[in-house]
Amino acid sequence: xxxxxxxxxxxxxxxxxCIGPEAHRVVDRLGDGEVALLENxxxxxxxxxxxxxxxKRLAELGDVYVNDAFSAAHRxxxxxxxxxRLLPAAAGS
Length: 93
Known about the structure:
Elements: H1 2-6, E1 12-15, H2 20-28, E2 35-38, H3 52-59, E3 65-67, H4 78-82, E4 89-91
Parallel strand pairs: 1-2, 3-4
């Protein structure tokens, strides 16, 4: 997998959704140093709303939030603004 190669060969687990049971299963099974890649959230209509429930479901799966989507950073979406109020947040480079 190209992502694994890009991060020094670390194992990468994939979930076909970014929320819900499968995403939780993949994240919960991660070992030390492993990474989870979740399906793109663009398939969920709630992402464009500042939906606190959707943001909460996303935040349940992570420890920190890094916004590297500069072109969307000004939008008040659940995946860019609401989640940043639920997890420690930083700007990407």
